[in-house]
Design brief:
single chain, alpha/beta, Rossmann fold, 2 domains, five-stranded parallel beta sheet, two-stranded antiparallel sheet, 11 helices, 7 strands, disordered C terminus, binds zinc ion
């Protein structure tokens, strides 16, 4: 799929940051060894230099023994070094450069093809780009205030809902199957707020979450479909580990939006990927607004979560604001 230049730039910057971090750890370790075990340091430098010399000779046309000899000489020298480190009480791999991805050494490509780690980064930054276009602000579970629910009974019910959602986040496995959830309840019961908490918490765990209101997501798909803007958001929304469609029913309703919505929900179900849909509509309003193909999926394959209370939106302010 095609990603924007900005997504590539962010992915390349992240790779550079990883390389730098791996290399700076190596230099710190090398400095410790230089000060505390100079004989090991000298040996390590000797191995490095002779390795580079051999490579230079090889590249210069001196192919006696060839690359295999260089590799085997280097390997046995490395093993000696490991033994020396161990004898001095350091971990054997203390002077190795520990890359985040050993396969591509954090360069993003291995054997001439794009490495899996780069693909993951591209997907992640592409989902982030999509979320930045959303009007929903990031929220956190730490900022949830149960005391805003005036009624004890409602408060208890919402405590259960929040507990369930927190454990949903905790157990979310981007490589496994996760439940699709259907949030319903009247306006302002905290559906958007808690959806945003889920998106923030999962993003921080490295899970790719695509998140927006139904209006924003479907408008974007429509603009791209009719060539008004560039992008492949449909692919991104289908590929995300979790897609959150907030406030279903607020979108501009058209044949296109209905087909796109069905395509999103259905494609993700076929790929066993979880989706969270929230709405203020009740069952009858849903049935009046959407075709059977959509409502039967929402009601059949999603776990329903009811939100209780009256309008708590204004009260759901961050604790830090002190309101
Ligand atoms: Zn890699």
């Amino acid at each position: 799929m095609r990603y924007s230049e900005d997504v590539y730039d962010r992915a390349r910057a992240e790779l550079a940051r990883r390389r730098q971090s791996a290399e700076s750890t190596y230099y710190q370790h090398a400095e410790t060894i230089r000060q505390n075990a100079p004989e090991i340091y000298k040996e390590e430098q000797r191995i490095r230099n002779s390795f580079f010399k051999l490579v230079a000779q090889y590249l210069g046309g001196d192919t006696e023994g060839g690359i295999e000899r260089i590799q085997s000489d280097n390997l046995s020298a490395q093993q000696r070094l490991r033994l020396m480190l161990k004898e001095k009480g350091y971990p054997e791999d203390y002077l190795d450069t520990h890359y985040y991805c050993e396969r591509c050494k954090d360069t993003g490509s291995a054997g001439g093809v794009t490495c899996e780690c780069m693909k993951v980064l591209l997907k992640r930054f592409s989902a982030m780009e999509l979320n930045e276009k959303s009007s929903i602000r990031p929220e956190r579970f730490e900022d949830v205030r149960l005391d805003i629910y005036p009624d004890n009974e409602v408060c208890e019910k919402m405590r259960k809902v929040i507990g369930f959602l927190e454990s949903y986040v905790e157990r979310f496995d981007p490589y496994g199957e996760n439940k699709s959830l259907f949030f319903y309840g009247s306006t302002g019961t905290g559906k958007t707020f808690l959806s945003s908490c889920i998106a923030t918490a999962l993003n921080e765990k490295g899970v790719m979450v695509s998140f927006g209101t139904a209006f924003e997501l479907l408008k974007r798909l429509e603009d791209e479909n009719f060539g008004r803007v560039n992008g492949d958001s449909m692919r991104e929304m289908i590929d995300a580990d979790l897609l959150i469609i907030d406030d279903l029913g607020c979108e501009y309703h058209s044949k296109f939006s209905e087909a796109a919505l069905y395509n999103l929900i259905n494609s993700r179900m076929n790929l066993h990927k979880a989706t969270i849909v929230s709405t203020n509509l009740n069952t009858q309003e849903l049935k009046n607004t959407y075709n059977d193909r959509i409502t039967s999926r929402l009601m059949g394959a999603f776990t329903p979560i009811r939100f209780f209370g009256s309008d708590v939106r204004l009260m759901l302010k961050r604790k830090s604001i002190g309101q």
